[in-house]
Amino acid sequence: MFLDEARIHVQAGRGGNGCMAFRREKYVPRGGPSGGDGGEGGSVYLVGRANRNTLYHLRFASLYAADRGRHGEGSNRAGKDGEDFEVEVPLGTVVYDEETGETLGEILHDGERLRVAAGGRGGRGNARFATATNQAPRRADPGQEGEEHHLRLELKLLADVGVIGLPNAGKSTLISVVSAARPKIADYPFTTLIPQLGVVAEGPLSEPFVIADLPGLIAGAAQGAGLGIQFLRHIERCRVLLHLVDLSNPEGSAAEDLATVERELSEFNSELLERPRLIVGSKLDAAVPERREELRRAAAERGLPYREISSATNEGISGLISDLSRRLRKVP
Predict the structure, then answer these.
(1) Are residues 210 and 316 in the same domain?
(2) Of 120, 155, 190, which residue constitutes the final position of a domain?
(3) The domain containing residue 213 runs over which residues?
(4) Which has the closest alpha carbon to 310: 318, 301, 302?
(5) Residues 123-176: tens digit of each pLDDT
(6) Domain count across the chain
(7) Is the pTM of this model over 0.70?
(8) Does residue 101 have a pLDDT over 50?
(9) For the chain, N or C: smaller number of CB within 10 Å?
């Protein structure tokens, strides 16, 4: 199961209490203070893992808590620090404070750690308070409470190319042809219910890139229609957008199909339409001539590059991969 949003409760460990103690040795009738400091409470960290691709594993625990620090002891022995607690998350995870809405950070690299709840400080033992005028202090500090937060985690997939378009435009078929990914393919809308990632390379020595098959968008998606903004967020991470339009549909207008998806992208995030974008007519083997000409004109009006492909016959596929590789080399 794919899950791209999760809510978790994190609690750092409390610091250990400082100790109040005095030396008790033979022939030392008035030994000085010897209370040690309490240990630091453990913190909670989110850790990026490249082998994780969903937040689904976070559904099974309501609380992620680190250990408390141990109390200080006599003979100036400090308490042991509490163990930190690490929560593994996939790369591309953005972390928000559920109560304030503040963005706490994002995790983009394997092994990257983000502290989301700091452990409490350990209390000072009475040995810390000894002075020339107070050589037997009877004071020790308690440990401080660790931080506690309710977090909302949001996963935005990291992909170089995002394939967008209306449902049933041929996105999944394209992914299955250009990569080893095997998404579900069928002749009905919303066959793809979760994003699919595939790795594509122009040749054995070429630099590979990641392509994402995103569920189809419909009118009103930015307001939640269809699969709504549930997957629109993933488009924000893509460096290049590949906009597929079905050339074989005898009904409707190819230009309107193109405009429908553009409107949803613009309403969700107006900057998305400024990304490098390639308009591709799909299902060329069954294309309606009028739709081909209409889509070619629409692309020219927008000043966008235009290509036509057939995933069924592989026509235009190699040229498309070469084009994408070339564009990605130019995009930071």
Answers:
(1) yes
(2) 155
(3) 161-330
(4) 318
(5) 999 999 999 888 889 999 999 999 999 999 988 777 788 888 887 778 778 888
(6) 2
(7) no
(8) yes
(9) C
